[in-house]
Design goal:
Number of strands: 6
Largest sheet: 6 strands, antiparallel
Order of helices and strands: HEEHEEEHEH
Distance between the termini: 64 Å
Strand order of the largest sheet: 2-1-3-4-5-6
Number of domains: 1
Oligomer: single chain
Radius of gyration: 19 Å
Length: 168
């Protein structure tokens, strides 16, 4: 169709560079969350995480909650949690918003037992959170599957639950 041009790279037009830069900047603004909300499991009430360091460590796009070195799989686990990320001052609204906080990403986490880190489910096309997640990040072939989690994520969840049990 393109003759000799097919499969080769060419400089982009300035308009294309500008458009793509705007899209990346918008995504980067949305990618930094203001609140991480954890529900489910043995929790008496949802846990709000607003600490900037924790939000960076468990960022929905670069955080260490999935072990990407392991293939998608699920084993035995105990409690299941719903984890949602929120950001202020963005659109569009979602059914999961909390006041002026807009949901930017959602996932499910199943706490592992017997020393296992557990499993994270990234929403697929027919799953809860897909319509919201797909606007901001595309999980590609990872969507709709359970993935091995990390021990740091498991420890984080266990600390949050223990803190609530101690009344913190």
């Amino acid at each position: 169709m393109r003759g000799d041009a097919d499969g080769k790279w060419y400089p982009a037009a300035p308009g294309w560079n500008s458009l793509l830069s705007d899209v990346v900047a918008t995504r980067d603004r949305r990618a930094t969350s203001d609140l991480l909300l954890i529900r489910g499991g043995p929790l008496q009430r949802p846990i709000d995480v607003t600490d900037p360091d924790l939000l960076r460590n468990f960022d929905p796009w670069t955080g260490s909650f999935v072990n990407w070195n392991e293939p998608a799989a699920m084993g035995h686990c105990t409690w299941e949690y719903e984890v949602t990320y929120f950001k202020r001052g963005i659109e569009p609204a979602t059914p999961y918003d909390q006041g002026d906080l807009r949901m930017i990403y959602g996932l499910r986490y199943c706490l592992g037992d017997d020393g296992e880190p557990g499993y994270v489910h990234l929403a697929g096309q027919t799953d809860k959170f897909w319509p919201e997640n797909v606007h901001l990040v595309w999980d590609g072939t990872q969507a709709g599957k359970w993935h091995p989690s990390t021990l740091s994520w498991k420890a984080f969840i266990e600390r949050m639950v223990a803190g609530q049990e101690r009344g913190q």
